[in-house]
């Protein structure tokens, strides 16, 4: 569903991502882990088109999207939940949800995200800026789902979130995968969250993918050592 090959990304003359190549199948949850500053967010910005690639290929469901602007990548099946949520604080929860949709939003689609995140239904008339960090994260994920993506990309969804809400988000991602059969790519630093949700993990170090394993074979202590280097 997602195929990335020899992707080079950077800012100006500085190269940050070096020949990243990986894939993710339909219904798979792929975690990309790494310390701060190792290039995880840059990689996701390149996938969604917020950062132009120096070279390389990004395909969604067999279609080359690597040269498309972000809005066309969304139409081709990608959705992005950025680090820091980036919800509209002055809009209501409901207005935030429909802000990224094309045309009318079916009631069934709204009911679906409300079922995944009941707190959003309870607070649908409240301003986004009045929600807690965890509630804003749930809102950002729900907003992305209303674009009907094939590939859902999330950047550090547990950042600044209390442990009980982290568990809710992990549960929601598993339910989304089951309900929608989506491919989910998530960057993360919290090993326990990764072990709870992912099928496979990649570890990034200095802009390169240096380790890969499936959840059933993951050595959590080894991952922690790689993140601590």
Q: What's the topology here?
A:
Blueprint: E1 2-11, E2 14-24, E3 29-33, H1 40-48, E4 55-60, E5 63-64, H2 70-75, E6 78-81, H3 93-98, H4 107-116, H5 118-122, H6 133-145, E7 151-155, H7 163-180, E8 183-188, H8 191-197, E9 200-205, E10 208-214, H9 220-228
Parallel strand pairs: 3-8, 3-9, 6-7, 7-8
Antiparallel strand pairs: 1-2, 1-4, 4-5, 9-10
Shape: globular
How many separate structural domains? 1
Structural class: alpha/beta
The appropriate CATH architecture is 3-Layer(aba) Sandwich
Strand order of the biggest β-sheet: 6-7-8-3-9-10
Distance between the first and last residues' Cα: 32 Å
CATH superfamily: P-loop containing nucleotide triphosphate hydrolases
Helix content: 25-40%
What does this entry look like structurally?
- By secondary structure, the protein is an alpha/beta fold.
- The chain has a single domain (2-228), classed as P-loop containing nucleotide triphosphate hydrolases (Rossmann fold, 3-Layer(aba) Sandwich), CATH 3.40.50.
- 36% of the residues lie in helices and 27% in strands.
- It has helices spanning 40-48, 70-75, 93-98, 107-116, 118-122, 133-145, 163-180, 191-197, 220-228, and strands spanning 2-11, 14-24, 29-33, 55-60, 63-64, 78-81, 151-155, 183-188, 200-205, 208-214.
- The strands form 2 sheets. It has a 6-stranded mixed β-sheet with strand order 6-7-8-3-9-10, with helices on both faces.
- A hairpin with a 2-residue loop joins strand 9 (200-205) and strand 10 (208-214).
- The two termini are 32 Å apart.
